[in-house]
Design brief:
With 174 residues, the chain is mainly β. It has one domain. The strands form 2 sheets. Strands 1-4-5-11-7-8 form a 6-stranded antiparallel sheet, with no helix packed on it. Strands 2-3-6-10-9 form a 5-stranded antiparallel sheet, with no helix packed on it. The protein is globular. This is Myeloid derived growth factor. InterPro entries: MYDGF (IPR018887). One of its GO terms (cellular component) is extracellular space. It holds the Pfam family UPF0556.
């Protein structure tokens, strides 16, 4: 469509152009914007491997999977929060214990994304709570690959309270 000219032919071309543009925007299909989703789940001790996962985005395009085994204590309430950017090209997954530090001893953990590649990943021994800040794990305790943040066997000191992942749509998803 050509832009309106500055000529006046008895009508205001700019007003007509603006009306056509507004009509086109109004008739365009609405894009779904993912609101951040937070889901509570129990982290259960006992040394058995457990998995919790959630999906988000148009057609559940992205999935975050938390796999772990822990010992000691009783169940703890944790949360998984997921969201996508407005253009649905970036995805975030945060897994944490809202009360701050976990009292469970984790023998293993892995937070993995599907449908995206990790651009940033971090693991914390203590999650921010009240006046306290996040305490990151030492770099040698965990590793970040294109699709997962996981413990390093032999180096991980069994403390985990929070995981954060920011990922970008996989090339196959673009």
């Amino acid at each position: 469509m050509a832009a309106p000219s500055r000529r006046r032919n008895g009508g205001d071309g700019a007003s007509l152009w603006a009306a056509l543009l507004l009509a086109a925007v109004a008739l365009r299909p609405a894009e779904a914007v993912s609101e951040p989703t937070t889901v509570a789940f129990d982290v259960r001790p006992g040394g058995v491997v457990h998995t919790f996962s959630q999906s988000v985005g148009p057609g559940d395009k992205y999935t975050c999977v938390f796999t772990y085994a822990s010992q000691g204590g009783t169940n703890e309430k944790w949360q998984m929060s997921l969201g996508t950017s407005e253009d649905h090209q970036h995805f975030t997954c945060t897994i944490w214990r809202p009360q701050g530090k976990s009292y469970l001893y984790f023998t293993q953990f892995k937070a993995e994304v599907r449908g995206a590649e990790i651009e940033y990943g971090m693991a914390y021994s203590k999650a921010a709570f009240e006046r306290e800040s996040d305490v990151p794990l030492k770099n040698e305790e965990f590793e970040v690959t294109k699709t997962a943040v996981s413990h390093r066997p032999g180096a991980f000191k069994a403390e985990l309270s929070k995981l954060v992942i920011v990922a970008k749509a996989s090339r196959s998803e673009l």
